Amino acid sequence: MATEPFSVDIVVRGYETDSQGHLNQSVYLQYAEHARWSLLRHGGIQQSDLLDKGVGPATLETTIRYRRELRAGDEVEATCAFVFGERKTFRIEQVIRKADGTVAAEVTAVAGLMDLTARKLVENPGGCFRSLATDPAAFGL
Description:
This protein is of the alpha+beta class. The protein has helices at about 25-40, 45-55, 125-130; strands spanning about 5-10, 55-65, 75-85, 90-100, 105-115, 120.
């Protein structure tokens, strides 16, 4: 049985819009990042936990597919799901959806965990998340 991905609610603020009155393209990335860090906290991982372990998240690639415009006052949810494989990288799949269910954007990222001393990606990012999390299931682990 599949579970729904983690999500956070966000209200589009007027200062985040561009001269055409819709959400500035860079803010979609901020919403996605907010959902990522919120998922980490939800799963029991603080930023300081990562730093204490000597690792940090590294985004290698991000793709945004814009579907519908967002305007000031729109209520949206930003979802976040980590998808781990067998390698050093993992995918982060996200949807930014209006309150009526309309998909405004899809954000997909390829990321890893960097060893902050060696400056290389760690071999098993899922295992690292599992060891730090109080709720590994939040990350699909």
